[in-house]
Amino acid sequence: MHARRGGKRGCVLLLVLAIGHSAWAQQQRHSDTWSGQQQSQSWATQKVARSLRHGEWTQIVRGGRTLKAFVILPQTTRKAPVVIVAHEVSGLTDSTRNTADEIAAMGYIAIVPDMLSGRGPTVETSVRSRTHA
Fold first, then answer.
1. What total number of domains does the chain contain?
2. CB atoms within 10 A of CB 99
3. Are residues 6 and 42 in the same domain?
4. Is 54 helix (H, G, I), strand (E, B) or coil?
C-alpha cells in the first residue's frame, strides 16, 4: 500500500515538474523575441517616454550601405563627447534606448546603431519615438 501512494506522489511530482518546465520554456521563447523583450521591459518604455532629452532616428551612410541608429542628445549647447551603445541580442529595445538616455543625462551624445536589422524602427516604434522623443 505504501509503495502505491509513493508512486502516485511521484507521478504528481513529475507532472508538476513537466508543466512547470513547459511554462518556463514558453516564457523563455517569448522573452527571446523583440516584442517579448519590449513587454518585459515596459518600465524602460515609460522612462524613455518621460525623458527630457531629445532622441531621434538617423541614418549612417557609408560605402553605399545605410544603417539606422537612434541618437539621444544631452541637454547642453556645448560640444559633447560621443558614446556608441551596443544593443542586446534581441535588437534595439526600449531598454537599450533607456541606457542611451541615461548616458545622455551624463552629458554624452549617445548613438545606438540598429545592428540587428539595420533598418531601424518598425512603424509602431517609429510613431512612438516621434511622439515621445
1. 2
2. 21
3. no
4. coil
Phi first, then psi, for residue 108 (nearest 5°) are -105, 155
Residue corresponding to grid cell 507532472: 15
Say whether both 76 and 107 belong to one domain: yes
Rounded to two decimals, the pTM is: 0.59
C-alpha grid cell, residue 71: 541618437
Tens-digit pLDDT string for the chain (133 aa): 455 555 555 444 444 444 444 444 444 444 555 566 556 677 777 887 888 888 899 998 889 888 899 999 999 889 999 999 988 777 788 888 888 998 999 999 999 998 877 566 654 444 344 444 4
Cα-based distances in Å from 122 to 79, 90, 96, 97: 31, 14, 16, 15
Q: Which of 87, 74, 83 is nearest to 116 (CA)?
A: 87
